[in-house]
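Worked Example 4.2. Read the sequence first, then its structure tokens.
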Amino acid sequence: MSETIEILTYQLAQFNLTIIELEERVSSYKNTELEAGNELENNKVESADNETETEPVTRLTLVATVEVLSNQLETVNATLSALENKLALLETQENKTSSEPAQDLASYFTSLTSSYFLFKGSENTDSYKAQAVCESKQLYLTEIGDQAEFNVIEMEIAPFVVDDWPVIIAGKRRSGRNEWVWQNSGSNVTYFSWAAGEPFQPNQDNDCLAITTVGGVASMVSIPCYVERGRFFFLCEKELPLASFRNA
């Protein structure tokens, strides 16, 4: 449960930053709208019958923008309130169960797009069971998209992972072929950083992916999906909240 609280705490921080940003934008647009209104007041146009005020299109646009931003701010505030309530409930539950064994979370770190949770295996498991554990925590086995993401993971796991202990990640070989797919997204694996001699041939049953480190240098290896092992780690991932909003 502690990792769930960490996720919610991070989400709350991101929502607070978004609220600050929206409030600043609303304030900026309102100031611009006020300036446009003052300028309009000083430039009234008299018609033949009566005095009318011509409202520029730009001011109408500003009014509409302020309304949209205000609605977004209300939505974010409502979501923030719900998250705060959920966090308070989880913290209460955490206090009630503090005597129970904690999840063996070895490390937690983030990249530009995702949060990562490195778990140390406490009992024999395999790649499918590791995937099930991630999903039970509303996470998924890590899917590595490029060299930059691999470098972050390599640096962060190095202090915790014992040489030759595999770190199970996502990645499943298509039956009988040397093609790989990510289980969560369903997309093809396009980035690899294979160790020497990898991957093993499809007929050798090494159809799942893992990372091993030797002297702090990480490489991808193919491992049997169903073989239970006592010495291992597995890396779960969760996409950072508000990523699409911040990139909009």
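Now turn to a second chain, presented in exactly the same format:
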Amino acid sequence: MQFAWRMLQSVVLPQQENTAICPILPQTLLATLYDAADAGAKAELRSSLLASSQELGKLVRNQIAATQQSGVNKLDQAMAIFLGVDTKISKAIHENALQDGVEVLSVNFLNRNAAAATANNWVAQKSRGAIREIVAPNALDASTRMMMASVIYFKGKWKHQFTKTEPGLFETAPTFDKTRTSTSIQVPMMYMFNKLRYGEQEFPDGNGLRWVELPYEGYAGLSMILMLPKQRHQLQRSAEQLSAADISEIITSLKQMRSSNKMHLYVPKFSLFSSLSLVPALKSMGLKSIFDRSSALSGLTHEPLVVRDVSQRTFVAIDEQGTTATSAASLAFVALSAAPPPPTINFTVNEPFLLMIVDKTNEYPLFVGKIVKPESN
């Protein structure tokens, strides 16, 4: 959880555009380098990643297996290390990478167009065509020896169906006076009225976050959490105060809540494609040696190497598709008869918001993202 929170704070929140990442993928990729690292780099990897490659590999496999069991949700993930044709990694590292689900592929970086095409074709195949490029040819040169990459594609079906979609306004930024150009855009706004789990998070400065859970069909542990600031257009100020413990508490509460609120829910329909280099964020977390010091990965190959890039491409599509909740499922969320019925809530997502797709069973966010301007690609 701590690594996912760090990625939210250092990668997602600083972005001024729609952004989403899957924290566990770079975490797993980097963990495969642990056995090849010298003492100094090992210490940095331990303090930055906070988990072993074995622990992370098991978590990824559990998340994917549980999601695929539903038969209605799609989760495609791929991890790879691309090696130059004359670069050989140690047998132990190679075996560990394969065990953790990381593919090791050979490319000729001297022919950067062909090398990029190899990597990009691999990505397109693994993501079912949703992600078509992981690297541009001009990002490669004769000095390139290795590239690490992770991609993920997710599309889920809602447990509760949105009943209509109509044009609505989404305010991308506050309008302080009537002379300013409008900051509102028209978006397709989905609507449902249903019983949903809802909560609020308060912060010492008076700001806070309101959140609602949207469960997916099939695997009961998989849900999306949408977060809005309690004070309008204060998402950044509120989200920066959100701690790893807060996120853990929210996920835990979803498993324990026995009641839900009747809710009028409005959510914009959108899709996003996010392309990021994670190196600056990883360095800010203290992971520097593998990028800057050639002896840091002395156990990886016979040639001194530094990692040039750790990149991620993410595609997320949110629309009205889903299945109608059964009566039994709805009854499972009814409040205890001894308690007063919770109030009906209006939750209208018409300003920048956070989203998390969480695995409640393993208590880990599969995706974290920020939407500042809903768009359909």
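Notes for the reader: The chain has two domains: 1-156+271-317, 164-269+341-371. The chain has eleven helices and 15 strands.
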